[in-house]
Amino acid sequence: MSKYSTKLRKIIKQEKRRTQIRNPGIRVDDFPGGADGFELVSRFCYNSGDIPITVSNVSLLHCCAVFLGMTEKASPVNLLHQTEVFLDGIFHWPWKDILTCLKNCEPFFPSAESCGLVEKLLCSLLTKIAQNSDANSFSVSSSSSSSSPETARTLCSQGVCNNGSMSSRKAASAAAWWFQDLTILSPKTIEHFLRSLGAYGAENNNLVLTRFLLHYLKTALQNNNDKNLYIPTEYTGLADTAVHGVVQMGNTAFSCRGLFWVLRIVSGFGLSRDKRGALERLIGEMLDQATLDDLLVSGGSSNGGAYDVNLVVRLIRLFAHYYGDDVSLHRMKRVGELVDMYLGEIGPDPNLKISKFLGVAESLPDFARDSFNHVYRAIDIYLESHPSVSLEGRSKLCRCLNYKKLSLEACKDLAMNPRIPPRIAVQALASQHPSAATLKTEEFASDNDGSITGSTSCNKIDDYQLVLYKNNESDDCRSKSEEGGEEEEEMKSNLERMQWRVVELEKVCREMKGQMARMVKLSPQQNRHLPRMC
Q1: Alpha-carbon gap, residue 168 to 442, rounded angstroms
Q2: pLDDT: which is higher, 407 or 158
Q3: What is the predicted pLDDT for the residue at 440?
Q4: How far is CA 416 from CA 330, 382, 383, 509, in A?
């Protein structure tokens, strides 16, 4: 073998000088292709410098020939010369042969890169893409079929990396024919592919290459689900490059749903913090165009919940911050409706904490909702799915409700809901008539037959107190007023409305007998005030 290799001759001479005792063998590190490469070279040497060279083995033979110094200096028509002659026709190879040869370089990529083989193959690949793509996007003359390192830069100047010519959706779809074929290549090869075009990292301003990267990353995710082979960190640079391109194009090339699709793809590849923040800001600006399905992004954690609630909170804040006081009421209400639907969807999640539920519900200003009915329904779904929530937790959960924006039907349902604390139910019903806040209602009685009477006493007190208790005596109520005729009539009208509300509470009082027993054990003769319920 040393007959054909200048490197082996030097190694043998050095070994002879170091010791008088001949070693049984010599050690050669970093041999391209390992045992497979050595076997191919051995066949060439023991076959008197002859071996069939094909697309499948030329990359390995060429790298071994360069590594061992198998030049014309060592032997005429040596292996390096033969592989170079074979590679001279690379720009006339079929598309699949170029891909195959490039794929075969991956096990010994450093050697293939150092000898210039990767660059030559990528130039040929780019030329094929340009020749078979839309003239406006990948136009390049067939005369570019040379092995010059300037080929890639020429392609960039003629449209491949020109954002102006690649910004249309038509150009992006026309270039899609080669997307799937390149998914067989490793992330390292794709990185060199982008670098050769000057479109890696922050240099990526190309729509076609951005869409290709998204397709490539999506395919990697699908293959990982099937085989569980890929290492996410190997794709981080490609994910950052794709996101940079998406942000550069903005909403001119991607809809709100498309941006959520991008987020789902790149989140699985260790996306850098700044790139993720830029993508979320872009989505936040368009949040009013999102749908419920868009927001249901997987949480990706075994104990953090089924959905990424923190993401939604961040997007809502970004939307509010971006538009500030200039946001239209219509857009804000659209986001409000979307958030209410989202609350109802995440409520059954057994791992969802109250703090996260409240974080979403309270992330919008009050004017974003005309009604809080959907928020109440979401709270009810949450409590039904989390029966172990304490009374304190249930009360805390209801703090996101604006009782004045609850419809009458929702308020009645809330009052009869056994999962809602009684104090909250009373507050909700009382809030239906804000004018009654000037009254202080001291006694409402319900007899054994279920009849209810009420009485009021109006003092100079800003708040009001509503008390429920059993009364075994009838006609034990009276009204006092220190005001004139019109004020007395108004007070009576308010009293009638409050009494009607108490009638609505009658069924609730029966269902919550055990709870009421602890609160209304005092008899009327004891002349003691009951504790405040609201």
Answers
A1: 72
A2: 407
A3: 37
A4: 34, 17, 14, 9
